Amino acid sequence: MQASNLGRQAPRDLPRAARPLHVTVLGAGKIGRTIAAMLHDSGDYRVSVVDHDARRLDGLPRGVLARAGDPTEPGTCAALLAGADAVLNALPFHAATSVASVAARLGVHYFDLTEDVAATQAIRQLAQGARSVLMPQCGLAPGFIGVVGHDLAQRFLRGGGELLDLQMRVGALPRYPSNALKYNLTWSTEGLINEYCNPCEAIVDGRRVELTALEGLESFALDGIEYEAFNTSGGLGTLPETLAGRARHVDYKSIRYPGHCALMKLLLNDLRLRERRDWLRDIFDRAIPLTEQDVVIVFATATGYPAGGERGRGPLTQASFSARIGGVDGAGGHVNAIQLTTAAGICTALDLVATGALPQAGFVRQESMPLQAFLSNRFGRHYTQHPLQESLV
After folding, report:
1. Which of 9, 79, 222, 283 is the 20 to 30 Å CA partner of 205?
2. What is the pLDDT of residues 25-61, one digit of tens each?
């Protein structure tokens, strides 16, 4: 693909801040670096990147400040965040609560990518009375899929219609699978295992429930390619709470190639590796190759009765959103699809807070972002401007 400046396009409708905002990015992994590059390329943010390993800070874009330190230690974290307007946390999920606590105390806007339900609940408590925004779950899933799901739901709920079912499916997959799992590592191994082991929130028959991960297996085809999907934890974000009492069925499943779920059940259940997640992480990191050739698939469908018609509601109707998103070659090299979409999600959230389009303090949910505002944002545009992408709305 052609080279791209990751953040060079300005939003069409939103005023810019009077001065460049100072943003600290925690974590110099691939996603953290992509976040830093997007924000730096925009010209509207002064970016610092922090990592506990100074060697990981080599090769950052010129103009991005590199700072070595352990942000999981509260005192060090406070020193690293001094003078920052916002912190974007790209560390593993278990660091979310401690960093959010420091940010709330200092009045620094906080954004993260966590899929961990317990961490999000803790951050919600920290946000009570906070002077700054605390906005977790800003990536792909949770994150963008919640924005899509809420938009589809509102098509039925707006004006007094009825939402029956909302199904959300997301997968970050290798374009050329070659192993038995038909999977390659493209993001956090710890986060992946967390999704496969923890309970999964859903709405079933109008009630909020917890489902078992790796259950609910289904098969479907999209653009002529066969996939499977199954329950995984955390992808819904705060949607079960937002839609409680307003929908009959809401669920989230991860998309994989056929056969993946059965092998994961063998590893986690039959071989009992869910009891030794550290072992499983080591096995995955040693045996499953990384890939830069990936694709992100987003597929969501809502069914219900829109408002209107002679009886106060229209006919039974379905509305869907579908996207296949590839990577891009940027000025700093290739950015794969999961890095691009994850970074675009958290940068869009920051941009909408910075320009006053979202609340300026307290806990902010992903679904607070209107889908159109997200997709028209200079960072959110990455979900609609790549050759593998198709959007059917």
Report:
1. 222
2. 999 999 999 999 999 999 999 999 999 999 999 989 8
